[in-house]
Amino acid sequence: MAIEATVIENLIKEAFPDADVTVDGADGVHMSAIVCSSQFLGKSMIAQHRLVFAALKGKMDGPNGELHALALTTKTKEE
Predict the structure, then answer these.
(1) pLDDT tens-digit readout, 10-61
(2) pLDDT of residue 61
(3) Which contiguous run of DSSP H or E holds residue 74?
């Protein structure tokens, strides 16, 4: 199964309305994303990544997930 980059971007923006989000990936299975949000302030990188993965609402869950891999970079708005 494959997924459009815009779907991933919209799910992330829904969870982080103030975020600057860039999603790249041509095959719809292996993608990368950069997410910059003030909601990450004071949170560890692991906590930030968990928040983003939760925003994907199961799109990466298990072997039947639509997205196999997401290389993720998170930043706070202050960085």
Answers:
(1) 999 999 999 999 999 878 888 999 999 999 999 999 999 999 999 998 888 7
(2) 78
(3) strand 69-75
In angstroms, the CA 17 to CA 31 distance is 21
How many Cβ atoms are within 10 Å of 56's Cβ, its own excluded?
A: 20
SS3 40: helix
SS3 34: strand
- Topology adopted by domain 5-75: GMP Synthetase; Chain A, domain 3 (3.30.300)
55 within 8 A of 12, measured Cβ to Cβ: yes
Q: Spell out the alpha helix ranges (H) of the chain.
A: 5-15, 45-55
Residues 6+ apart with CB under 8 A from 11: 55, 56, 57, 59
Task: Provide the whole-model pTM.
Answer: 0.88
Closest to 79 in 3D by CA, of 43, 31, 49: 43
